[in-house]
Amino acid sequence: MIWLIGNKGMLGQDVEKLLKRKRLSYLASDKEVDIKNYQILKEFTKDIKIEWIINCTGYTDVDKAEKEIEKAFLINRDGVRNISKIALEKQAKLVHISTDYVFNGEKNKHLSYTEDDKTEPINLYGKSKLAGEKETKETFKKYFIIRTAWLYGRGGKNFVSTMLKLFKEKEEIKVVSDQWGSPTYTVDLAEVILKMINNDSDKFGIYHFTNEGVTNWYEFAREIYRKSKKLGIIDSNKEVGIRGIETKEYPTPAQRPKWSLLSKEKIKRELNLDIRNWEGALEDFLTTLSLQTK
Ligand SMILES: NC(=O)c1ccc[n+]([C@@H]2O[C@H](COP(=O)([O-])OP(=O)(O)OC[C@H]3O[C@@H](n4cnc5c(N)ncnc54)[C@H](OP(=O)(O)O)[C@@H]3O)[C@@H](O)[C@H]2O)c1
Questions:
Q1: Which of 2, 103, 171, 191 has the highest Cβ tally under 10 A?
Q2: Whether residue 75 has its Cβ less than 6 Å from ligand 1
Q3: What is the pLDDT of residues 173-196, one digit of tens each?
């Protein structure tokens, strides 16, 4: 039995779809089974044999985390500790999702972050996620922590959905062009999670996964605009000006890493993966969206 935690979140929804499609037997929970409360988790899984736990939960509001520090740590650190304890007791393996925000983003441009690189989060969200990684590592051994970045998908608010909304509402938008990273489609990550389970390897540890390629938010926005116009998601007669700006012109409560390219060599080797580039994944996502909205 697989236990999917966070099945109502953006990533969790795509993982659940895949579990269904593959006819795997699973148990799913979200907010109603609060990961902050160990007893609730224990009760929920009582007498159920669990081989794998997939944790897609998280406190994910990066800016709000700067103020709601305690809440972010309760979910991203203490919640992860509780899940790890249950995994240990059940002798289950855990796939847990973490983030590129564990790095400070100061690495030389064009060099990617490997799993062994020094972590040094520059915002509270990143600190809480790193604390969660540490809890897992200290609790047991059978974990796969997948650090990912710039997630978007059907089931939640994200950069792509925000851009599509703005393209409909505005004549001009400004997007930061000096933060670099790799967009990741939730469907691609969901497939990797299930591949990891199917692989059933004992090479536990940290892995990085994003779509291939690197871009900045401004270029990403331009590509969303170009593709969504081509696919008829936005009015082909309406012109929207997209202007690149520097981070200092768009201050946010949380600081973000400037450069967060993750190396995927380890996961590619381990799962014999061929990762598609972010433009191809985006095209696929927008095509699905255009078919569903027609
Ligand atoms: N989004 C990104 O760009 C990104 C990038 C890198 C890594 N990640 C990581 O990837 C994972 C999935 O992200 P996502 O964007 O799919 O997240 P999401 O859409 O915010 O989903 C998280 C889910 O967890 C639930 N949850 C929150 N607190 C909980 C609790 N105490 N007990 C049980 N469930 C709880 C949320 O419920 P509510 O919505 O009701 O709170 C939500 O359904 C997270 O661990 C995140 O940190 C995300």
A1: 103
A2: yes
A3: 999 999 999 999 999 999 999 999
